[in-house]
Automatic annotation (TrEMBL):
Segments forming domain SARAH: 208-255
Listed name of the protein: Ras association domain-containing protein 1 isoform X2
Protein's UniProt keywords contain Nuclease: no
Keywords, sorted A to Z: Cytoplasm, Cytoskeleton, Metal-binding, Microtubule, Phosphoprotein, Zinc, Zinc-finger
Domain of life of the organism encoding this protein: Eukaryota
Organism: Cottoperca gobio
Signal peptide: none
Principal place of residence: cytoplasm
SMART domains: RA
Sample GO molecular function, one term: zinc ion binding
Length: 259
């Protein structure tokens, strides 16, 4: 399995260095309580479509004829095939990276005297995406692990899930893929159009926030973000009432001023 990336996908921004940019889309609601929205109940299950060896070779040729890049699929004689999938990242929580090489020798002792290595919390840009070269037997869980390894993310892969996004008749459908599904098979069935079907990596939302799944630095990071969000809401309310007060005083002045 090999990896490739778009121009923006290799850009990692530190939460500590770019906190103001983080707040543009990192909120308590979207981070902790966001659930996948479905715009309808109708859903095409690409994974249930099965093909013979001849049909696979024919569909691979049709697929390759529709793309304008070198991201072709290759069909094998045994009915398996290889190709590229593009995964978009829609992560609202920071990801954890191992310590930088220069900091690997820097260790801190906790209160119990244990040796601990520093880790840094990062977040990915909203438009980040990654290409993976996989086979028709590669499962969803393997794809998630490969993506995390590419970014050297040390978070538990169980925190993440792969989703299938499709658009039909102005409706948007989202489906969480099970761990044993094969993303390249979905790509072949749906064709190369990202509008017809795209793959998205998101947090593995279960409806309830499992706080025990996060490390101590991650929880501290959430508290800092909540504090900044609260302070920003307070500033917005103060500005709104100050503007209303000034507008009211100006209207009163116009009424009481002769002429």
């Amino acid at each position: 399995m090999t990896c490739g990336s778009t121009a923006t996908s290799d850009t990692l921004c530190s939460e500590e260095d770019s906190s103001s940019e983080l707040e543009l889309y990192f909120t308590a609601y979207t981070s902790f309580f966001h659930k996948v929205r479905r715009s309808g109940d109708e859903q095409i299950d690409w994974g249930k479509q099965e093909f013979t060896v001849g049909e696979i070779q024919h569909k691979v040729k049709e697929y390759n004829a529709q793309i304008n890049s070198n991201l072709y699929m290759v069909a094998n004689k045994d009915g398996s095939y290889t190709g590229f999938i593009k995964v978009h990242f829609q992560l609202v929580r920071p990801i954890t990276l191992p310590p930088r090489q220069s900091l690997c020798s820097t260790q801190e002792e906790d209160q119990q005297g244990r040796r601990m290595k520093r880790r840094t919390s990062f977040y990915l840009p909203k438009d980040a995406a990654k290409h993976l070269h996989i086979s028709s037997q590669t499962r969803v869980r393997e794809v998630i692990e490969a993506l995390l390894n590419k970014f050297t993310v040390v978070d538990n892969p169980a925190k993440f899930a792969l989703f299938e996004r499709s658009e039909r008749q102005s409706q948007v459908y989202m489906r969480k893929l099970p761990d044993d599904e094969c993303p390249l098979h979905l790509r072949l069935c749906a064709g190369p159009s990202e509008k017809v079907m795209s793959l998205i990596l998101k947090e593995n939302e279960t409806g309830e926030v499992n706080w025990d799944a996060f490390s101590f630095p991650e929880l501290c990071n959430f508290l800092r973000i909540l504090k900044r969000e609260e302070e920003e809401h307070v500033r917005q309310i103060v500005r709104r009432y100050a503007l209303a007060r000034d507008t009211t005083k100006q209207a009163m002045a116009r009424i009481t001023t002769p002429g």
